[in-house]
Amino acid sequence: MKQRELTVVLCIIWAVSLLYGEMFAYWVPSLWACSWPHHHLNSKPTMDEVGYSTDYVKVVVLTDPQLMDKTSLGLAPKSLALEIAQFYADLFMRRAFFSSIVPFKPDVILFLGDYFDGGPYLSDEEWQESLSRFKHIFGLNAQGRYKNIPVYYVPGNHDIGYASLHYQRPEVIKRYENEFGMRNYQFTVGKVDFIAIDAQTLDDKQRSGRPQEDLASLTWNFVKNVSMDVQLNPRVLLTHIPLYRQDWTSCGPHRGSPVINQRVSRAVDSQEVAYQNYVFEESSNRLLELIKPVLILSGHDHDQCTVSHNSKFGPIKEQTVGTISWQMGNLYPSFMLLSASNFTLPNASHPEEAISTHLCFLPMQTHIYICGLSVWNHCSNLIVSCNIFGGGTKEKNEDENCEYEMIWDAEGSMHLVKKALNAPIANLSERGLVERGNAVMRPTAKKHISEDREASMNVDLGADVDSMLKMTTRTSKSKTKIVIQRLVRTFRMLTIIAAVNLPLYMMLLFKDWID
Predict the structure, then answer these.
(1) Is there a smaller number of Cβ atoms within 10 Å at the N or the C end of the chain?
(2) Carries keyword Membrane (predicted)?
């Protein structure tokens, strides 16, 4: 393959790889891999004048973006390494949101917590900076294109911390509520009630004598009030921390990492909860008994998990949604599509039919980078093999397949004559030549042989050495010239490929980043 053709082919291969990894891969969920669950139902939907179904309200469920900050990787704040890690993590989520999720045209967006990584430990300035990034990623700022979509939030442990932190830094909760609203509340979507609770306070020690400051009491009072309401619609319980399950409980086929068992750590001085993987068993059973949900949605685990809880009212399914960020330890980031019925079901004995869900997976960013590096490695190897090791256009080597022969003329002067190797040897009797070693003397020089034999032998030996030195030097220079030519051609090919694809890569990087 000629150099020009090879360069064009490699440019096209690399450009296609960039376009897929930076753009086309994010179109897959909305085009082929995922759809609203109510589309799979057998009933004929009611359509509005625009052609959209009015039987169901479309809800997108996201969790654990956990924006990276100074607490994430142990890197210095504002360091280049941290800035690069933040940029690529934020860029993935922004692309995922606008290219994979928004095309589904959701009616409601629901976040299940952990919007920041070190939320409770950030200064007000740092927290505001992370908040601005969060709004930019999900189009929630003043320039956002989708601010007209209702958005609901559930607090996570990386947003407000656990009980051991609540009474030391009450400003953390106040800061959260000023921006995201109440931590315990309910709302209705279609004909389904959603109950959002602050799971970080459920297992807090209740402090008698200060009920107005008792966060655990506030949460449980809210739950009791909900339980006393007349339940007209099916309920969905929203909690950042999953409910209790026994160790080694299977999480179903969608989980990509090992199951995480219950782990609880407590503060040394107060013995209050400093971390927990799941809500305690007693609190979980109490929630199920009071709220009577038909479905539980949770996050926190960073990986997908589907379990069933036993209650007095029958089995209740809990679906833990995986993180939307590829930097949070899950190779398969995900989101959920939830269809909430917009009409009262005639069969009240099966309220779970009012809600249907579909788990959707985002592009595997680590695999995209690995594939990109693999493509680049193969292209580089092809360039090197074609140019450096002679696989490409072959240069003409003037010293290849030839040898130099010493010839004396009639005057006794010696000349070097280049001859091809393996050349047919002429008949000496017919040509009248006399051969001596590598030197050939013509008949016209024979009269000088006897008188100049000694001088001729000296000239012959000296000429042999000189000619060998000249041939070695000339061959070495020729090979060096060939290597330099191939290196220059390789560099030129790489420069052309980079000149075509680097601008394309930069354009794709900032196409989704700039509002």
Answers:
(1) C
(2) yes
d(C-alpha 24, C-alpha 511), whole Å: 13
Helix axes 80-95, 124-137, angle to 10 degrees: 40
Digit-coded pLDDT (tens) for 284-308 = 999 999 999 999 999 999 999 999 9
- What is the dihedral sign for C-alpha 235, 237, 243, 248? positive
Angle of helix 215-228 versus helix 281-291 axis, rounded to 10:
30
186-200, 230-244, 437-451: lowest mean pLDDT where? 437-451
Cα torsion 481, 487, 489, 491 to 10°: value is -150
44-90 pLDDT per residue, tens: 555 554 445 578 999 999 999 999 999 988 888 889 999 999 999 99
In 10 A of CB 446, how many CB atoms?
11
Name the token pair of 128: 């505001």
Give one DSSP letter per residue of 224-246, joined into a string.
HHHHHS---S-EEEE-SSPPP--
Number of helices followed by number of strands (H, E) in the chain: 12, 17
Query: CA-to-CA distance for 128 and 273, rounded, in angstroms?
Result: 27
Average pLDDT value for residue range 298-320: 93
- Residue 378 · residue 410 · CB < 8 Å: no
Do β-strands 151-153 and 108-111 pair in parallel, antiparallel, or remain unpaired? parallel
Per-residue b/e over 143-164, b at no fewer than 16 CB within 10 Å?
eeebeebebbbbbbbbbbbbbb
Q: Which amino acid is at 125?
A: E
Q: How far is CA 243 from CA 89, 295, 421, in A?
A: 29, 12, 86
E strands within 92-241?
108-111, 151-153, 185-189, 192-196, 235-238
- Cα–Cα distance between 159 and 172 in angstroms, integer? 8
Report the alpha-carbon distance of residue 393 to residue 151 in Å, rounded: 62
Query: For 60-64, 287-291, 398-402, 412-416, which range has the lowest pLDDT when averaged over its residues?
Result: 398-402
Q: What is the pTM of this model?
A: 0.77
Q: Of 184, 182, 105, 99, which is closest to residue 148 (Cα–Cα)?
A: 105
Query: E strand or H helix at 405, and its extent?
Result: strand 402-408
292-322 per-residue burial string, b: 16 or more CB within 10 A, e: under 16:
bbbbbbbbbbbbbbbbebeeeeeebbbbbbb
340-390 pLDDT tens trace = 998 876 655 577 788 999 999 998 887 777 776 676 666 666 666 666 555
How confident is the model at residue 437, as a pLDDT? 45
Q: How far is Cα 239 from Cα 501, in angstroms, rounded to an integer?
A: 45
> Cα separation of 187 and 196, whole Å?
8
DSSP strand E in 114-160: where?
151-153
